[in-house]
Amino acid sequence: MGEDLRFPDGFLFGTAASATQVEGHCAQSDWAAFAREPGRVRGGDTPDDACDQLHRFREDVALQARLCMGAHRLSIEWARVEREPGEFDPATWDHYRDVLGAHRDAGITPMVTVHHVTLPRWVAQRGGLLSQELPALLSRFAERAVEALGDLCQLWVTINEPNMLALQAHLLGVWPPARSSPVEAVRAHQNLFRAHAAMYRAMHEAAGRRGHSISVGVAHHLRVIEPERFGRLADRMWAALFERLFNDAFARAVCDSGLHDFFGVNYYSRDLVRFSAAHARAGFLRRLVPEGAEVSDLGWEIYPEGLGYVLDAWWPRARVPIYITENGIADADDDQRPRFLVGHLAEVARAIARGVDVRGYMHWSLLDGFEWAEGYAPRFGLVEVDRVTQERSPRPSAELYARIARARRIEADGPGGAQRERGAAPA
Ligand code: FCB
Predict the structure, then answer these.
(1) Residue 398 maps to a domain
(2) How far is the CA of 210 from the centre of ligand 1 (A)?
(3) How many structural domains compose the chain?
(4) CATH of residue 85
(5) Which of 330, 370, 287, 362 is nearest to 117 (CA)?
(6) How far is ligand 1, taken at its centre, from the CA of residue 105, in Å?
(7) pTM recorded for the entire structure
(8) pLDDT per residue over 375-411, tens digit each?
(9) Which pLDDT tens digit goes with each residue over 301-357?
(10) Contact by Cβ (8 Å): 155, 111
């Protein structure tokens, strides 16, 4: 007998995206400038047009509705809203009101991320993530966002993946400002925590003044981290250190301070960690996938069980409802995504059955978008986007996800059933 996996009433099935990766047409951000520098982005791609969602959001919301999506996580582009320090563009707020209104009319619950990777250029010029002003600037923007949009959105994320942002921008040097300094990475990480705390308070104060009821959390990037060679002390120490600094530091600080109303989990993969003298720039840390493991188009290990581990590990610490704020796979031909989707959703359903309070799952992503330094090469979309015509074509996995969302269950023997995720060949 196969396992019958169900999701409770009210569980939100949705998709996730960020402004820069899909909207297009924002020249004022640090990424617009960074992508123009030779060698920064694979293939010389830029976020200039992205998926043109700025103009096509109604079409995309209609697509989400057709795919039975009950939720969508999106971000607001700081550089577009606050073009000059302290000057908030009313037309851009109106645009985001239209976007959220379209979701409301389609019966789709929005989740808005205030900061997702990019900065206005003027913030970058003032020191970006390292600027002493960052907490004040971000909390002012967050406060304005709640004032402008708080009647249309209840679920808010302050910052997306602060750990990944500090790592990529200030240690690995692959995101702006492309620095390689462990000291800076730690400082950026700490500053982002200060910013989150200030944003959390400012957003609740603004909501209180306006009579809006909001829930605020962080989207934490959490990985499964294991030593490559259990018998090697150095590997174990480096795995423990990486776990501590990358997974734990920020998320624990948020949990311990109680400055969150829900806990967001972005889960993608597992790393085997090896101490490597040849990787000094990356903190002597080399990340590997287990031999023979199935990997995505980006070489990331497909490891659904890891989501179950992450949920079990964080639920007792978080003590607030959990949302899967991102989970997805780069898979251009969509031959792995169906199993990926079912495998990870099955882990969520099992965690719920064990008593973990997971309220929703947002798949990354609805569309193929601009994937930062990897450009448009990785295809994360449930829906394929033609780079020339911008035409949207749902992949088979989108229809599978729609069926699961409609039925609120994964049928053991049905299409994409729980069996398949345990390795049996697809029917
Ligand atoms: C996450 C980012 C998101 C997207 C996915 C693939 O780390 O939050 O913007 O690029 O990875």
Answers:
(1) yes
(2) 32
(3) 1
(4) 3.20.20.80
(5) 370
(6) 28
(7) 0.96
(8) 999 999 999 999 999 999 999 999 999 999 999 999 8
(9) 999 999 999 999 999 999 999 999 999 999 999 999 999 999 999 999 999 999 999
(10) yes
